[in-house]
Design a protein that fits this description.
The protein is α+β, with helices and mostly antiparallel strands. Helix content is 47%, strand content 15%.
Length: 724
């Protein structure tokens, strides 16, 4: 190796070691590989379990208590009667579904005092992991060097279909195979899905969303972000569609709850289904994200939030209709702001560039240039050459395709072209759609989003009809949308149903193409499907191949380094310890908050900080039962577990496999952890299990639910409140 390459490699290893100084808390690890990669380290941190206690396909293990909740969150079994604990924000859509102005479960909360009162949630499901298998060799059999990406993808798709089919044949299980390390490895996840999941309990939003958007992603936190559901099986214990004859599931494992509390340095483990991380992005991608993509998305969502703020403030009906939508928009709007700040603070682009320079030197020495020599150069060429495309792609997805009226148009288009979709199917969708829809609000959103699209996107990606209509209305977006909505049959439920009554299904598509609102959606869909997506797919295919090569090179270059795969919605274990952090010079956050902090934040004139009278009464009387200690009621705590979206609702588990809290957020200063982990700032935020039980028992009077659970008490003291 020449001196230049040696110097570059040394620099690269120093960078890697600096990142790995906290590798005990960085990473989202596959549970079936813990015995080889993580077990000793976890035990050194204080864990009393073995890897088999966490994941075992033959005996009951912790994995059997963990569920994918609806495919977007995590939940955990906490009783032998199928009781599931997850976040309030994970159950928010179901709570809203059962809410109305007259029966406002969002505001008042809900507690089923008997099994008969539990509420059915159409479409909601939970999935258990049956087993995980390494199928890399089978999937990649026949893949050869030089094979085109298209041929490679076709071969892998065929192999995947055959392998999953064989794995599930003759069973009620499902299976999916996911790529890891950009397609260098493949793992199969065999799952069992239950579709009868009922709402059992939810605190009022003044507890479940206390702090609202102001406190979202922030610490100190005082949010009781939890809700309860129950999964039902058929009488035979197997998955079944909703039926009054179904029985509560008898799980293979459920988590006991530890009332002993947490102390700094305590071992913690988060077990769940993290959504997406991109730890191995290059500097070019990080630069594009921070300078173009995130600012665009933040700006568009800010406009949406301003419109919804006004609509919801002026109408209780709209407040309920848009509560879940608003929360979804605001969540990542704030996350992206924090992510950008964190990446800039870490000098992420510069650090990534230094890594790439070291890799490039290594790649162009020792006879490796043929395989790896051009990788970094080609990354730069691709990312620099598609700026206009990326702006169009992100703007159309964020501004246009996420409009409610676009979603309705998309479903109507499907109805018109899909013979298997019945009138009953589309009417059921229409009923759900208009339940959470206000025509005046949608018209304002549409006008604002059309303006944003015009502002951001170059001419080649502008629909011709849009340009013509805008010119006809003298560039006035309010006039344009007034015309679109006034002349459309899809902007109001009764008008749309009358239209469907008048036209046979085979004529619906032809008639709708004359509808100005539907037609404009189709024009945007054409731009997206025919002009943006094909180029994006081509670019992404080349990037996938490059990242696959880059990832293989990194692992070859650093044979002794433990690489964890990016999160991709599959079951993972993250572990760390209870600890606070220092977000800024002269500021220190301790690891916990208490009910005292809720009372300090109380503001009856601010909906985000209203404290329910019953909770105030319990505080004043210090009626905390067995859940408080030393006259205080713990609420939330922080730890150094590496988490992301999808980990919402994940159990935080102690050294002996007991529940001590549920994960619901990250500290804002650490939201860049999807791209780059910072051991000093990255903290996950959890609701303390004791606060959950206190709310269920003392606040809601639902002690019958507590009796289902297995409670243990290790007797750890609860220190005085702090968060300064």
């Amino acid at each position: 190796m020449n001196r230049l390459a040696s110097k570059g490699l040394l620099l690269f290893l120093l960078i890697v070691l600096s990142f790995q100084s906290s590798h005990a808390v960085e990473g989202m690890w596959l549970p079936h590989l813990l015995s080889n990669l993580n077990e000793k380290e976890m035990q050194d941190l204080g864990m009393k379990l073995t890897a088999k206690d966490i994941y075992d396909i033959n005996e009951s293990s912790l994995k059997d208590a963990i569920v994918s909740f609806g495919g977007f969150c995590t939940g955990e079994l906490i009783s032998p009667e199928g009781l599931i604990l997850t976040n309030h924000h994970c159950g928010y859509g179901q709570i809203q579904y059962h809410s109305s102005v007259e029966n406002d479960l969002l505001t008042d909360g809900f507690w089923a005092m008997s099994r008969e009162e539990e509420l059915h949630n159409p479409g909601l499901f939970v999935s258990f992991i049956v087993r995980i298998e390494d199928v890399t060799d089978q999937v990649l059999e026949g893949v050869t060097p030089g094979m085109s990406e298209e041929d490679r993808a076709t071969l892998i798709k065929d192999k995947t279909r055959a392998i999953t089919g064989q794995a599930t044949e003759g069973t009620h299980y499902e299976a999916r195979i996911k790529p890891f390390y950009y397609g260098n490895e493949y793992y199969m996840f065999v799952t069992e899905t239950y579709r009868d999941v009922r709402l059992v309990g939810a605190p009022p939003s003044s507890i479940g969303k206390f702090g609202g958007d102001t406190d979202n992603w922030m610490w100190p936190r005082h949010t009781g972000d939890f809700s309860l559901f129950r999964v039902y099986s058929g009488p035979d214990g197997k998955p079944a569609e909703y039926s009054e004859d179904n029985i509560p599931l008898k799980p293979r494992h459920f988590l006991p709850v530890n009332l002993g509390g947490v102390e700094p340095g305590d071992f913690t483990m988060v077990f769940g289904f993290p959504g997406t991380t991109e730890q191995y992005l290059t500097s070019h991608a990080v630069e594009q994200l921070t300078s173009e993509i995130n600012p665009t998305r933040i700006n568009i969502r800010q406009v949406k939030l301003d419109i919804l703020d006004e609509a919801m403030a002026n109408s209780d009906e709209n407040r309920i209709k848009y509560a879940s939508k608003y929360a979804g928009i605001a969540n990542y709007w704030k996350k992206w702001i924090g992510e950008n700040k964190g990446l800039e603070r870490l000098n992420a682009t510069r650090k990534k560039r230094e890594e790439e320079e070291a890799f490039d030197e290594w790649a162009n020495s020792g006879g490796r240039s043929g395989k790896y020599g051009n990788v970094i150069t080609r990354f730069a060429e691709i990312y620099d050459g598609e700026n206009e495309l990326n702006m169009a792609y992100n703007t159309i997805r964020e501004a246009i395709l996420r409009l409610d009226i676009a979603a309705l148009s998309r479903r109507l288009d499907q109805y018109a072209s899909d013979e298997s979709m019945s009138r009953e199917d589309i009417e059921a969708y229409i009923d759900r759609f208009y339940k959470d829809y206000d025509v005046a609000t949608e018209q304002k959103l549409t006008a604002a989003m059309l303006a944003k699209y015009r502002e951001n996107v170059v001419g080649q990606f502008q629909p011709t009809t849009f340009t013509e209509l805008l010119n006809e209305k003298d560039g006035d977006y309010e006039k344009l949308t007034a015309y679109l909505f006034n002349e459309s049959v899809i902007d109001e439920k009764e008008e749309l149903l009358a239209f469907l009554d008048k036209n046979k299904k085979k004529r619906v598509g032809k008639k709708l193409r004359k509808d100005p609102l539907f037609s404009l959606y189709r024009d945007f869909a054409y731009i997206y499907n025919e002009k943006i997506q094909p180029r994006k797919r081509t670019t992404d295919a080349e990037l996938d191949e490059l990242y696959r090569t880059y990832m293989a090179g990194l692992r070859e270059m650093q044979e002794d380094r433990r690489f964890y795969p990016d999160a991709n919605g599959t079951l993972r274990v993250a572990y760390g310890q209870v600890e606070g952090y220092e977000p800024a010079d002269g500021v220190e956050y301790l690891h916990y908050t208490t009910l005292e902090g809720i009372m300090d934040k109380e503001d009856p004139d601010n909906a985000e900080f209203v404290v329910p009278a019953k909770l105030r009464e319990l505080y004043l009387k210090k009626e905390y039962g067995p859940y408080g200690q030393d006259g205080m009621m713990p609420v939330c705590f922080t730890a150094s577990n590496h988490t992301t979206g999808g980990n919402s609702g994940s159990p935080v588990i102690d050294a002996e496999g007991r529940l001590i809290g549920i994960n619901f957020d990250r500290a804002w200063q650490g939201t860049m952890s999807d791209i780059m982990f910072d051991p000093e700032m990255c903290r996950n935020i959890s609701v303390d299990a004791r606060y959950i039980l206190f709310i269920i028992d003392k606040f809601a009077g639902a002690g019958h639910l507590i009796k289902e659970m297995s409670l243990v008490n290790t007797g750890s003291p609860v220190p005085a409140d702090s968060a300064e």
